[in-house]
Amino acid sequence: MARGTVIVGRRLLTILVFAIVATGPARAEPVTVENCGRSVTFERPPERAVSQDMNISEIMFALDLRSRMVGVTGITGWYKMTSAFRQAMGSLPELASKNPSVETLVAAGADFYFAGWYYGMQPGGAVTPESLATFGIATYVLSESCAHVGENAPTATMDLLYDDVLNIGRIFGRADRAAALVRSYRTRVDRVRDIIAGNRPPRVFVLDSGEEKPFTAGRAAMPTAIIAAAGGHNVLGDVAMSWGRIGWEAVIARDPEVVIIVGYQDDSWRDRWEFFRNHPALSGITAARRNRFVVLGYTELTPGPNNIPAIEKLARALHPERFP
């Protein structure tokens, strides 16, 4: 605590000024955010945060919150860490290669966990906002994932990303930075919209994995918003689910013109595409016949900063004539 003085006329008033400590941002009052059907109040910015998964962690990094974190979870157990992610991660440790336990988060002294349903937490599992609250650990749930525990599955929009960035910014006292990021995101997405205005939206299918039944994106999953922003139409955008499995019959009936293959920092997408276009029941689909596919990485298709360049990349693939 430091002392300061303010001169008013001829009077000298002594006031107490709270110093802004180097450990993080100051905030004058508590912040309440609406998240996954609940109101969550933060009396002060978290100081020992943990984020799950690459895309969620990249939201934290984009807001320059690494100094407010004690670690990340859920990276190397599923993915190959990219050089860009490793650089952004810096000296932060990976506390768990897949989903952390309550004990892992408590042992790290965490006071905040940014995760989601099926992004580090399982409905009915040991790690939930309620179980962590018992140990004084606040939780922010990735908005896209709320469809897994809600009564309906609303159509995904880019607001899923924008709202999370703005809320995390408010929670950590980075509201101005968050607002600037979202403005830049909107500007880039609006530019794509203007370029492709008037074009017919091609039919698009998302192929993550699965041969008997594909694991794909329904109306509540982020790819639906990304595809729409890039001037396309998710052929499963009428299916009331987020990420999930569906029969091939539904895909065949909707005849996608372009397939998005989820990339995982390796060449496994090649095998999935070969399976798709050579399968007897799928080879007649327009995308297979025309060999039209786009590979987008995991963090490009799950909510995070990489959604924006993904929209630009996908728009070029769907509407090449508009992008000289």
Briefly say what this structure is.
This protein has about 325 residues and is of the alpha/beta class.
Explained architecture:
With 324 residues, this protein is an alpha/beta fold. The protein has helices at 54-62, 83-89, 102-107, 129-133, 159-171, 175-196, 222-229, 248-254, 268-278, 286-290, 298-301, 307-318, and strands at 2-8, 11-17, 31-35, 38-42, 49-52, 69-73, 94-96, 112-117, 120-121, 138-141, 203-207, 215-217, 233-234, 243-245, 258-263, 293-297. Helix 5 (159-171) packs antiparallel against helix 6 (175-196) and helix 6 (175-196) packs parallel to helix 12. The model is unreliable at 1-24 (pLDDT under 50).
Radius of gyration from CA coordinates: 22 Å
**Beta-sheet strand percentage?**
15-25%
Mean pLDDT, as a whole number?
91
The number of helical segments is: 12
Global structural class? alpha/beta
Largest sheet: 6 strands, parallel
Uncertain segments are: 1-24
Tally of DSSP β-strands: 16
- The secondary-structure element order is EEEEEHEHEHEEHEHHEEHEEHEHHEHH
**N- to C-terminal distance:** 59 Å
User: Which descriptor suits the 3D outline?
Assistant: globular
Helical amount among residues, as a percent range? 25-40%
